[in-house]
Amino acid sequence: MEVLAQDRIVAVGLLTNRDLERLGSGFRRCFPVSDDQKFEDLLRAIDEADATTGLRRGRPEEGEMPAA
């Protein structure tokens, strides 16, 4: 099966309902996930990869206040 360029996944994100409302009707593909801890390992791996590559450098962690 050949995947067309326009069908390639280019981003994966965790969005709230408010985020989806802001994106508007142009954002058509979302897949709701339940908050049942099934994704904890995946989220931990993403956080570790971000820390390793420095992608989160300068960005506040959840619950922290941004530096002034």
Helicity, as a percent range: 25-40%
Relative strand content: under 5%
Mean pLDDT: 75
The parts where pLDDT drops under 50 for at least 5 residues are: none
Q: Could you walk me through the main structural features you see in this protein, from its secondary elements to its overall organization?
A:
This protein is mostly helical and 68 residues long. It has one domain. 31% of the residues lie in helices and 0% in strands. It has two helices and no strands. It has helices spanning 17-23, 40-53. The relative contact order is 0.07. The mean pLDDT is 75.
Summarize the structure.
The chain is mainly α and 68 residues long. It contains 2 helices and no strands. It has one domain (5-53).
